[in-house]
Design a protein that fits this description.
By secondary structure, this protein is mainly beta. It has a single domain, classed as Roll (SH3 type barrels). Helices cover 13% and strands 46% of the residues. It contains 1 helix and 6 strands, in the order ββββββα.
């Protein structure tokens, strides 16, 4: 599991601990732990906003790209999650 920034195909930007999991074709294959939406000014909001779950399964075909977070964003995220 590694802290990653995800740009989704719908242009949503998330930060979460991401783990690739084995699955059947068409099933979710990415496990996001403590996902937060990154908004302007590095403001973080829990994602998705309509659940208290902190583990979300997602299909990798919803993701456009994955990158490592900047040191600053990682610090903001770490402070928010604790």
């Amino acid at each position: 599991m590694a802290l990653q920034v995800l740009l989704l195909k719908n242009e949503t930007v998330l930060i979460a601990d991401v783990e690739e999991v084995g699955s059947d074709i068409g099933e979710p294959d990415c496990k996001l732990t403590n996902p937060y939406k990154v908004e302007d000014g590095m403001k973080l909001t829990p994602w998705p906003p309509y659940t208290d779950q902190n583990i979300i399964m997602m299909s990798s075909d919803s993701i456009l790209t994955i990158v490592r977070p900047s040191v600053k964003l990682e610090g903001v995220y770490t402070a928010e999650v604790k």
